[in-house]
Design goal:
Layout (H helix, E strand, L loop, with lengths): L14 H21 L6 E2 L8 E2 L1 H10 L2 E7 L4 E4 L4 E12 L5 E10 L6 E4 L4 E4 L4 H24 L31 H17 L7 H20 L4 H9 L1 H9 L10
Antiparallel strand pairs: 1-2, 3-5, 4-5, 5-6, 7-8
Helix pairs in contact: 2-3
Length: 266
């Protein structure tokens, strides 16, 4: 399409007609809720009240408005990497009426190619390597990303749908209310660790088990440390941790039943 003239401005404002247009816009949005499919036309993301409109949904909205997308500015892009000729794109896409050629509105979108896009897996070297032949692909991908973003932006604007959908997912989602702080986790110094290890060894030695070797002891100690790490992650207090350390006997019995236990005959 060659025509991209904008729609003529409303010279005389009439309240009733304005209200009717708003009612039609709301009716259009409600109808879309029944037609568009979750997971295809839009997606719901944790932390956001409104679903994010996707390209298939934007295309359906443009079609419903009897419009087609047309790049108005920015298609040539701007080189941001002189070494490889990588580009960034700031596109302006208009929704143009298929019958009249008039532009109903515009949307903006951004895309950027990076050096990371030039890396690909090499079966021979069994690693990701830089492949300069991917430059054109990287730039085309960035252009498509900018077009997709601009199309969604234009569809939301022309369809008066920004109250129903969003596309601003680059921003961090709203912060959750602060929860009550967990109890202070256990911190064991190097000296305390050695004392703890000695206490464990003395207990096992007191059992007078002739099949408890250094190997078995080390496995039990590792098992005990692992158990303590799990407890710390659950927010165990220092007092509770010290109690756990003092109750070595039930922990050792649990270890004997675990897969880490191994008897070694002397």
């Amino acid at each position: 399409m060659e025509k991209n003239e904008s729609l003529p401005a409303i010279v005389e404002f009439e309240t009733e007609k304005a209200v009717d247009r708003i009612k039609e816009a709301i009716k259009f949005a409600d109808s879309l809720r029944e037609i568009l499919k979750s997971g295809e036309d839009y997606n719901k993301h944790p932390g956001y009240q409104k679903p994010a409109l996707e390209k298939p949904g934007a295309e359906k909205i443009a079609f419903a408005l009897n419009c087609g997308p047309q790049i108005l500015r920015g298609e040539e892009g701007k080189i941001i990497d002189e070494q490889y000729g990588l580009k960034e794109f700031n596109l302006v896409v208009g929704l143009v009426n298929r019958s009249t050629g008039l532009s109903y509105g515009e949307g903006v979108g951004y895309g950027r190619a990076t050096e990371k896009d030039l890396y690909a897996w090499d079966d021979e070297k069994r690693a990701r390597i830089l492949k300069p032949e991917r430059i054109e692909w990287a730039n085309n991908t960035a252009l498509k990303m900018a077009f997709k973003s601009a199309l969604i932006c234009a569809s939301l604007s022309v369809g008066s749908l920004s109250g129903y959908f969003t596309q601003d997912l680059d921003k961090a989602p709203p912060k959750e209310p602060k929860k009550d702080k967990k109890p202070e986790p256990l911190f064991i110094s190097g000296e305390e660790k050695e004392q703890f290890k000695s206490k464990v060894f003395d207990y096992i030695d007191s059992l007078e088990l002739n099949y408890v070797t250094e190997e078995v002891f080390q496995k039990f100690y590792n098992f005990l440390v692992l158990s303590m790490k799990v407890a710390v992650k659950q927010g165990i207090t220092k007092d509770a941790a010290e109690q756990v350390i003092s109750d070595i006997e039930p922990i050792f019995n649990a270890f004997r039943k675990s897969r880490y236990w191994k008897e070694v005959e002397e």
